[in-house]
Write a structure and sequence with these properties.
This protein has 338 residues and is of the alpha/beta class. The chain contains 12 helices and 10 strands. Strand 4 and strand 5 form a beta hairpin. The longest helix is centred in the C-terminal third of the chain and has 26 residues. The protein is globular. The structure holds flavin mononucleotide (FMN) and iron/sulfur cluster (SF4) (2 copies). One iron/sulfur cluster (SF4) binds next to helix 9.
């Protein structure tokens, strides 16, 4: 068995390692490879006739671009492939709420089947949500609880797959996955650029360079002696959760300002300059989205420059929820396999 994983903050990697452990218990040779470190030209030689598993987090109801690009570049083959994901689970009482897969499995299966592969499984795992741009980080007991729940689920599904049985557990969610598909396309083509531009480094940053080194898609570069997030960013959350100075923030204040300013500017444009009705609707939508993103970019550049000013640099983080202690940072559980 060969497992390829893409992982921002360690959840998908943990699933890959658990599977490898279960396979080895059954005397099945199993190797794990990180997608970000694997040369696609080596895939054929690595896989030969092995069962292939691909594990990746869900970002915006789809696999992130880095994982999808890897799948798209797969060589032709006829191996059996099982697709797995880690989604954002939250804990309410003793219940772990399920995340949403969206189009991830269908799109990847379509790409792989066209290359000749046989899809033998679609299995989601509700690991702790790491999306701390939009909610406070889960605390350690919660993370540990969700990890423990998943460990036995991984074992159950893994056994089924290793016994050669198909496992399409995610089929029971087909209705919500189809309903959410327009949002997944919206996130892929527009939303992720918005989130990519929501990060900045506060004055706590000491330019250690760890975030730049660790980014799986090389999305951070130095501009004006400060880390700067380019639109390549996949919002995988690795940098924000691993910065030793907790200096990486989500610019909630900037987003709120940009949204208000953009709607004011757009309504002014709509009312006065563009009294003509742009048709069809999707061209109007694309046009104004373009203006919105251009404004976001300008505001972001401006914020990046303003952060260089000592006084303003102190003030800006107060408008970022990530700056406050209660928000925290996500750390995956230090897990010891039973
Ligand atoms: C930008 C972003 C988008 C996300 N979108 C979804 C989503 O659409 N559905 C979901 O269930 N979880 C979503 N999540 C949660 C992650 O998929 C989940 O926490 C996953 O376990 C992280 O895995 P990793 O640690 O391997 O990166 C999102 C997380 C991030 C950072
Ligand atoms: S990891 Fe944190 S402190 Fe280091 S360069 Fe990045 S933002 Fe600055
Ligand atoms: S910049 Fe940060 S959040 Fe974006 S892809 Fe790189 S490590 Fe992930």
């Amino acid at each position: 068995m060969v497992i390829f994983y893409f992982s921002g903050t360690g959840n998908a990697k943990q699933i890959a390692l658990w599977i490898a452990g279960f396979a080895q218990k059954k005397q099945i040779d199993c190797q794990t490879f990180s997608i970000e470190k694997t040369d696609i030209n080596d895939v054929k030689a690595l896989c030969t006739d092995a069962l292939i598993a691909i594990v990746s987090p869900i970002h915006g109801f789809n696999f992130p671009k880095r994982a999808l690009d890897f799948i798209s570049l797969f060589p032709k083959g006829s191996n059996n492939v099982v697709l797995m994901n880690t989604r954002g689970g939250l804990k309410i009482g003793r219940l772990v709420t399920p995340g949403l897969t969206g189009v991830a499995f269908y799109l990847s299966s379509y790409i792989l089947m066209r290359k000749g592969y046989q899809i033998v499984g679609h299995i989601p795992f509700d690991m702790p949500s790491n999306w701390i741009s939009i909610h406070p980080a889960l605390n350690q007991p919660t993370v540990k609880y969700i990890y423990e729940k998943n460990y036995s689920r991984v074992e159950k599904h893994c056994n089924k797959i290793l016994e050669g049985k198909p496992d399409f557990f995610s089929n029971r969610e087909i209705i919500q996955d189809v309903l959410i598909s327009p949002v997944s396309l919206g996130y892929y083509f527009a939303g992720k650029y918005f989130f990519a531009k929501s990060f900045y480094a506060s004055e706590e940053c000491d330019n250690c360079g760890i975030c730049i080194k660790q980014c799986p898609v090389k999305a951070i570069k130095i501009v004006n002696d400060r880390p700067f997030w380019t639109s390549r960013c996949e919002s995988c959350m690795r940098c924000m959760n691993s910065c030793p100075k907790k200096a990486i923030e989500t610019a909630h204040g900037l987003i709120a300002t940009t949204s208000v300013m953009s709607s004011l500017i757009l309504s002014w444009l709509l009312g006065d300059i563009l009294a003509i009705n742009i048709q069809p609707g999707f061209i109007r939508f694309s046009f104004f989205s373009l203006i919105f993103f251009a404004l976001l970019w300008i505001f972001y550049k401006l914020q990046h420059l303003l952060l260089r000013n000592k006084l303003i640099g102190k003030f800006i983080p107060y408008a970022s929820l990530t700056h406050y202690k209660f928000w925290g940072r996500y750390k995956n559980a230090t897990w010891h396999s039973k």
